[in-house]
What we know:
The chain is α+β, with helices and mostly antiparallel strands and 135 residues long. The chain has a single domain (6-103), classed as Alpha-Beta Plaits. It has helices at 22-37, 72-88, and strands at 6-13, 42-49, 61-69, 99-103. A four-stranded antiparallel beta sheet has the order 2-3-1-4. It is globular. The termini are far apart.
Amino acid sequence: MIPVMIIVSVLYPRHGESQFDHEYYRQKHMPLVEQRWSGMGLVKMEWMRGVAAPDGGEPGYEVITLLTFLSREAFEAGLAAFGEEILGDIPNFTNVQPLVQINQPVSGTINVELERTQEEPTQDQSLWGVIRDRP
């Protein structure tokens, strides 16, 4: 059987009592995840910081992280080997219990060119671009 790539989503809900240390997450937790799991089938990591709901209100999630693994078996092996250490680090940056889901990609991605601005965005700004028409 051919292994099927999976994407593990880790969602950190945002509510009135939630706290999240973004610097710790960026400087300590995600490097830990990369160090432990990159040799065990982790091929891509990305995370997004929630900045607003579409109506301008508060976002539902503080952070959404996507971890792409070569297979579910690779993720399960990584979790068995280093899950206790990685999950045990969560209280160091947040007081919320993350929601974790295993996903199977069902479609390809579309790469688009973004128009870049002269000014670099700050950490608190969202990065938006104008999607150009495809040729």
